[in-house]
Amino acid sequence: MYDTSSYGSEAASPLPCGECGSRGVCLPTGMSDADCARVSGLVLQQHHLARGDTLQGINESVHGRWYAIRSGQFKSFQADPHGRPCITRFARKGDLLGLDSLDLDHYTDSTTALCDSTVCEFSYPQLIEAARHFPDLARVLECRLSKQLAQQQALALLVRCDYAEQKFAQFLSHQDWNDIDQAHQVPELHLALSRKEIADYLDLTHATVTRMLSRLQKLGIISVRYRQLRLLDGPGLLQIAAGQPPSSKGGAGTTMPGIHLLPPE
Predict the structure, then answer these.
(1) Is residue 34 classed as helix, strand or coil in its secondary structure?
(2) Tell me, which fold does domain 5-156 have in CATH?
(3) In this structure, which topology does domain 161-241 adopt according to CATH?
(4) Are 187 and 230 in contact (CB under 8 A)?
(5) What are the residue ranges spanned by the domains of the chain?
(6) What sections of the chain are H helices per DSSP?
(7) Cα separation, 108 vs 143, whole angstroms
(8) Which site among 57, 126, 149, 238 is 20 to 30 Å from 96 CA-CA?
């Protein structure tokens, strides 16, 4: 695990939840400023990780810690029977890390930053105790646990999909197309993960992922420039994700930025 000692001054004065850009998708979502401040008081530390830094490693002690992602993206992976890393999850801004380790003494996977990222550290026992007297926090925690289960179910269905193009379209449709290309006024997405990482996650080959990107670009669904993707035809992507051929082409502006193209997990 990375060394947190160099962040001591920042850990002593974490950014308040009320000033955080992730407030709307994190634990204080939907809360008043006063309740948001109560959640902020539960933050133990904030940790800043560079790309490739490990937040938690296999066999490290859990210590009842949760981490809320304030910025950046993470991947979690375990070793397969042959010792090769097998990616089990991607997490982004607003997600909670550590929910699947609540009843464990040691982590069974490793979680590393895909880009420069910041997380807020919470104590699970403290959160649960606070939730007993804080109904809005209890509601959010229940929703997060439910979302975690839904994500695992969605992943199980995703990896069982027989068609590579449909599987890859489903993966793209679950990403957050938050940014807007100002020149073309269409949603865009920066892939923090490599094509090989996507291939490992979807149980595809690197060549297949590259071919799928080229095919979707040829169909006018997306445009690709290195890791920068622009969404040109949202309904077309959804149709492919549902196993149907796209009926429209070049439907720029047909989706709203910042929402999932498929129902939330």
Answers:
(1) helix
(2) Jelly Rolls (2.60.120)
(3) Arc Repressor Mutant, subunit A (1.10.10)
(4) yes
(5) 5-156, 161-241
(6) 8-12, 33-40, 124-131, 135-160, 164-173, 195-202, 206-218, 234-241
(7) 24
(8) 238
- Helix, strand, coil % over all residues of the chain, rounded to 5: 35, 20, 40
| Each residue's pLDDT tens digit, 44-70 | 999 999 999 999 998 898 888 889 999
Residue 111 CB neighbours (<10 A) = 24
C-alpha span between 86 and 203 (Å, rounded): 9
Contacts of 261 (CB under 8 A, 6+ apart): 172, 173, 174, 177, 234, 237, 238, 241, 255
d(CA 189, CA 73): 13
What is the DSSP track for 111-134?
Answer: EEESSSEEEEEEEHHHHHHHHTT-
78, 85 contact by CB (below 8 A)? yes
Go through the chain and tell me how many residues it has: 265
Residue entry with tokens 């679950």? 174
Distance in angstroms (rounded) separating the CA atoms of residues 23 and 10: 19
Collect all residues with Cβ–Cβ distance below 8 Å to 217 and sequence separation of at least 6: 223, 224
The one-letter amino acid at 62: V
List pLDDT tens digits, range 175-196: 877 666 556 678 888 888 889 9
- With H, G, I as helix, E, B as strand and everything else as coil, classify residue 221: coil
Q: pLDDT (tens digit, 9 = 90+) per residue, 232-243?
A: 999 999 999 888
Q: Are 69 and 97 in contact (CB under 8 A)?
A: yes
